[in-house]
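User: I'm putting together notes for a lab meeting next week and I want to include a structural view of one of the chains we've been expressing. I don't have a solved structure, so I'd like a prediction I can at least talk through. The sequence is below, exactly as it appears in our construct file.
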Amino acid sequence: MNIAVAGTGYVGLVTGTCLADIGHTVSCFDIDETKIELLKAGCSPIYEPGLEELIEKNMKEGRLSFTADEKEAYGKADVIFLAVGTPENEDGSANLTYIENAVRSIVRHIEKDVIIVTKSTVPVGTNERIRRMAEQLKPPFLRTSIVSNPEFLREGSAIYDMFHGDRIVIGASKEDEEAADVVARLYEPLGIPIMKTDIESAEMIKYASNAFLATKISFINEIANICEKVGANIDDVACGIGLDKRIGPQFLQAGIGYGGSCFPKDTKALVQIAGNVQHHFELLESVIKVNNKQQSILIDKAKQYVGNLRGKKVALLGLAFKPNTDDVREAASLVMAKKLIGEGASVVAYDPVATDNAKKQLPPSVQYADTITEAISGADAAFIVTEWDEIKQTPLSEFRKHMHSPIVLDGRNCYSLEEARNANITYISIGRAPVFSSICQTK
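Assistant: Thanks for the context. Below is the predicted structure for the 443-residue chain, given as structure tokens.
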């Protein structure tokens, strides 16, 4: 099929590239001409493992192209995917400005009947709103069908998820069932189970999925906090409950909370959606509250075990909200860096790929290192914020060797307690007993 994708962010770029890879002809559109020129040169504006190679491959084979020309992108398309941002408003609701602008642009430039597929995460009722907009603005002799097709891609493993997803959800009204069938055929080469539903249910599935996963994270973090107080080990507790097939082990890794572009935004949006229909979503409000508190928990631990942080040099290891991405949106590192500076500490940060993005949001007093060793050299404390393989594979003996005081506060439980004891460092993690160094003065 001839496919157009509106938006070349994480979702749009991965979706368009992977659809080209299974044989469709795909044109990706973006209003950012600088980004388009970068993509035309085969360079990805985002860090996603394997994406740049896949872009280059499909461009060479003539199935993938990029343009800032709306007519070129939309004029001959059979299917147009909406993959533009839906950032949150101040009240937590989704901002649909980019969606509305994209729909206006699409219907102004189409030259044939078209199926508009909403990939962007949007509140229930948005696709019906898109339908009304398209009906009012489109040429009278053309038909626009609306289909909801929420994405379930994880940053850092988005290409794998596109090709090996658990399910593909397609929502459409009865009058657009034929369009839903077309979208289903588009995905057939992937061999992934397809679930068809009404359009409102498809919209809700996305929010409900992310809210449930966020709930698991906040739940296990609350259990971890209790484990510390009663002497239990969260690793064993999480393993024990995760072996129950009704629960499963996924998203039961204790740490300093969730971040990124989806969970924080979508949980708040779902609370707002519930409020709009006079439903007080108390459970999800608590999930959000727990996560906000969890992002600061290492600072409290540092003050307990390191003491006054004023004038202390601290290393911040990891800036991205998760490994294998350069995305720092809602990352715990942003909260922690600002709080550490507020405590009077001197912060030196390190991340393999997210430094440039972090610099745009962190205070100017934050310094940046090119290596882990440079970041921890002479430090009074080291905070592990993102569980990059490079960080996890750094022996704890390196911290003892290079730090002024070998005190590691691990927000992702990257090391075992036995490793910490053998390294003779002070090691503070989440939901586990602290390990104290015999060569470090601790409070």
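A couple of points you could mention at the meeting. The chain has a mean pLDDT of 96. The CA atoms of residues 65 and 320 lie 29 Å apart.

User: Perfect, that's what I needed.
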